[in-house]
Amino acid sequence: MKKSLVFWVEEYFYNPNPLQKLLSLLLLPLSYLYCSLMWLRFKSKTPEDFGIKIIGVGNLNVGGSGKTPLISAMAKEKENVAIVLRGYGRESQGLIVVKDRENILCSVSQSGDEAMIYATKLPQAIVIVSEDRKEGIKKAKEMGVKTLFLDDAYSKHDIKKKDILIEVESKNSRCLPAGPFRERLWSGKEVTIFKEGVDFKREVELKDATSKMSLVTAIARPERLDAYLPEVIAKNYFPDHHAFSKEELEAILIKDNADSLLVTYKDYVKIKAFGLPLSLLDLEILLCENSE
Q: Does residue 29 sit within a domain?
């Protein structure tokens, strides 16, 4: 039931059918109220200067847009760098140093999948999860960080930072709950918009391919993968940040008569310890010359 509801909401937000368009129209008054409250919230905040370079990377809409690979691409060449994020979907609370400059210090269940991607792909970076981003920034500063990336932090208007937003196309441009947008580009807030094909491009590497691969993925709007997929014998979609069990993945291998499960890095970090046959669809972002 939950799985069906998640995919229904994603369709409603990004590719609505006629009935969903009608529902969106009926919810417009609530959407206007929500957007007004978000504007008032923005106007009430005074940015705090933490004395280090902070770059917020995010998007205005609900759901995935490629924040994790973009931050990874921007951070990989920097020294004394940290990534601070909420750690959505983790089985822990509070501030946790996922990785210092040398070692990964916790499990993926404690860090969340996105934080573990950073910890694995950025060997020189410090990775911190914290619901309170300011506490995460303070901890990173204590650890000697000079440049800090905030994952999904456009709405943190009380933190002085450079904001980068990834442009996301949608057939529904309304604010919640009539559409997928959490906020607008508020007047007076300096933002750099990154567009795919202009500021960055995606590069895909297929690792450990087999002749019969079954796609298993738990990312938002999984149809985004279609442009990069090799031939697969089946597609198995799960809600974003889904916590897989070994048994359900073994069942998929049997059901699809697959030689391996094709996964993205986001799911790979959660299931690699199961010892199942995996093929990896490793999506990277390459920055264009005009991008920082």
A: no
Q: Name the token pair of 158.
A: 């009380």
Same domain, 57 and 189: yes
Q: Which of 40, 38, 31 has its CA nearest to residue 173? A: 31
The residue with tokens 């007047």 is: 187
Residue with tokens 């390459």: 286
Q: Which of 148, 176, 194 is the last residue of a domain?
A: 194
Work out the number of other CB atoms within 10 angstroms of the CB of residue 145.
24
pLDDT score for 130 = 98
Domain shared by 228 and 165, yes or no: no
User: Which residues have CB under 8 Å from 157's CB, separation 6+?
Assistant: 41, 42, 45, 47, 189
Nearest Cα to Cα of residue 282 among 230, 211, 223, 221:
230
Domain range holding 73? 46-194
- Same-domain status, 212 and 189: no
Least confident of 84-93, 176-185, 207-216, 220-229: 220-229
How many domains are contained in the chain?
A: 2
φ, ψ (nearest 5 deg) of residue 88: -60, 135
Chain-wide mean pLDDT for the chain? 94
